[in-house]
């Protein structure tokens, strides 16, 4: 059974939505390192998506090191990477640039962006507390 659900949004690709939901589940603690990840067939069935899309999602998450394909065990959630500070900054560079460009496009100032980031950061911390109580 898939430990997260998605509400499909036609404005974003299904692939992006499933990748986002998976990474949120990992960061929020619903999926912990070593936990089994659903097979492509189960993921496709549970989320009602095409098996090819589910396969692409799993392969992408393995490539991005969120998941680990383990012979004999199947696919599991990877331990968190121990990235150096510069590596972490480079990983976020494109996403931060997109956030800044979009914020400026819609007229949001830096303080509002930072407040929004803090709010979302705290909501992930709250997710960890809730999921840790299961």
Could you write a compact summary of the structure shown?
With 134 residues, the protein is mostly helical. It contains 5 helices and 2 strands.
Which structural class do the helices and strands define? mainly alpha
- Number of helices, counting only DSSP H or I runs of 4 residues or more: 5
CATH architecture of the largest domain: Orthogonal Bundle
The ordered H/E elements are HHHEEHH
Radius of gyration: 16 Å
CATH names the topology of the largest domain as: Arc Repressor Mutant, subunit A
The quaternary structure here is single chain
Most strands sheet: 2 strands, antiparallel
Give the spatial strand order of the biggest sheet: 1-2
CATH superfamily of the largest domain: Winged helix-like DNA-binding domain superfamily/Winged helix DNA-binding domain
Shape: globular
Low-pLDDT regions: none
Q: Can you identify the CATH class of the largest domain?
A: Mainly Alpha
Describe the structure.
The chain folds into two domains: 64 residues, Winged helix-like DNA-binding domain superfamily/Winged helix DNA-binding domain (Arc Repressor Mutant, subunit A); 48 residues. Strand 1 and strand 2 form a beta hairpin. Strands 1-2 form a two-stranded antiparallel sheet. The chain is globular, with a radius of gyration of 16 Å. Helix 1 packs across helix 3 and helix 2 packs across helix 3. The protein is mostly helical. The mean pLDDT is 86. 13% of the residues are buried. The chain contains five helices and two strands.
């Amino acid at each position: 059974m898939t430990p997260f659900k998605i509400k499909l949004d036609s404005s974003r690709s299904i692939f992006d939505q499933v990748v986002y939901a998976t990474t949120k589940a990992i960061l929020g603690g619903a999926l912990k390192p070593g936990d089994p990840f659903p097979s492509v067939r189960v993921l496709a069935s549970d989320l009602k998506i095409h098996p090819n899309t589910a396969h692409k999602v799993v392969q992408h998450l393995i490539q991005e090191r969120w998941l680990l394909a383990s012979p004999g065990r199947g696919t599991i959630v990877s331990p968190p990477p121990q990235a150096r500070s510069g590596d972490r900054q480079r990983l976020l560079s494109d996403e931060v640039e997109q956030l800044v460009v979009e914020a400026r496009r819609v007229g949001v100032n830096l303080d509002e962006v930072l407040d929004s980031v803090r709010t979302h950061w705290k909501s992930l911390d709250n997710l960890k507390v809730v999921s840790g109580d299961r």
